[in-house]
Write a structure and sequence with these properties.
By secondary structure, the chain is mainly α. It contains 15 helices and 3 strands. The N terminus and C terminus are likely disordered.
Length: about 350
């Protein structure tokens, strides 16, 4: 590719600024969404798509790119992120194009168990700033149910240490205030936020709560941290959002009202929260179908044990009569607890010696 041509087709800084203003003012997108959109568009630009070309050429280049990505094994959900970014760009350029989203297949959610999170926490037990930070991040994610972006956007000022609340900036710039569990806020034997901020936080960013050696923690870096710790723990399928799934199902299993769970998770539509109810219904189905549950119809009748009555002499006399009647023997008879036994294993009932048949 000609270098000069590549430079000419790149979007200049002035155009990017106009796009940002258009996205925030007219499309009413949050700043976080705008940043992610620009990142996707620059990735497309880097891979040979001319964002400033005409309508037909843009469609051709985009679908060629999507075709290549599908052959490489990209998922439909991954391509839909580029589709949304391109549609926002087309609105800005006032081009009559709307790329259709690919149909996504719903994958079953894999919810980590409490034992899995214990293994994850055990991978960062060393007394180093990195291990202390990672341990506090994991603890915060499954205690508060935050999204990756919400955790990365946390500032030191977002924590109200007196009232025990946290300010969360969620999707679409929406703000919600959540209570912080006491053990997460100021716990002594757990990786609390107070202990992390006071002794282990890297002071590379003045505002950010969670930092790296270069500054504020990013969602991409957060994902790499969790994936690395998950591989060390032998559970490589866990990612940051898995801890949010654990938080939601843990609340519902504990009997918390679904409306309360909706507010804690920051869901606009309760149907989104209702997804986790299907998991609870599966638990209920497995519970009622448990083969270890007792069923009166499946119980085998137990043999009744013969206990001697209070009048033991009459009971013994009846037993001896039944045995003697079988063999036509009169007189004293050798028995073993009322049953006729072979000669080599018989014993005498001395107490029956006076019983006459």
């Amino acid at each position: 590719m000609n270098v000069l041509y590549a430079e000419e087709k790149m979007v200049d800084e002035t155009t990017w600024k106009k796009f940002i203003d258009h996205a925030i003012v007219r499309q009413q997108l949050a700043e976080i969404t705008v940043r992610e959109t620009i990142r996707k568009l620059k990735y497309l630009e880097k891979h040979g798509i001319n964002l400033m070309t005409d309508k037909e050429e843009l469609k051709k280049q985009v679908y060629d790119f999507f075709s290549k990505k599908l052959q490489e094994g990209a998922s439909h959900s991954a391509l839909n992120h580029y589709v949304k970014a391109l549609n926002r760009w087309c609105k800005f350029r006032e081009i009559d194009i709307k790329f259709k989203k690919y149909r996504e297949t719903a994958k079953p959610r894999r919810i980590p168990l409490t034992n899995d999170l214990k293994k994850l926490m055990d991978t960062c037990k060393n007394r180093t700033p990195i291990d202390k930070r990672d341990r506090t991040i994991i603890f915060t994610l499954y205690k508060m149910g935050l999204r990756a972006m919400e955790l990365c956007n946390l500032n030191l000022d977002d924590i109200d240490w007196i009232n025990g609340t946290m300010t969360i900036r969620g999707k679409g710039g929406k703000i919600r205030y959540l209570p912080i569990p006491h053990d997460l806020l100021k716990g002594k034997n757990v990786p609390s936020l107070l202990n992390y901020v006071k002794y282990w936080r890297l002071d590379t960013d003045k505002k950010a709560l969670f930092t790296t050696q270069k500054g504020r923690l990013s969602p991409v870096y957060l994902r790499s941290i969790i994936k690395k710790r998950a591989r060390q723990a032998g559970i490589p399928w866990i990612h940051p959002h898995s801890l949010r799934h654990y938080y939601a199902t843990n609340l519902l299993r504990a009997g918390v009202n679904i409306r309360v769970v909706q507010e804690l998770l920051g869901h606009t539509d309760i149907k989104t929260t209702g997804i986790y109810l299907h998991i609870i219904e599966t638990d209920m189905r497995n519970a009622v179908e448990n083969p270890n549950l007792e069923d009166p119809l499946k119980l085998k009748p137990k043999r009744k044990k013969q206990h001697p009555p209070k009048n033991r002499h009459r009971w013994l006399k009846n037993k001896i009569k039944s045995v003697a009647g079988l063999e036509g023997i009169k007189g004293h008879h050798r028995i073993y607890f009322g049953q006729h036994m072979p000669d080599f294993s018989l014993c005498w009932f001395r107490r029956c010696s006076h019983v006459q048949i």
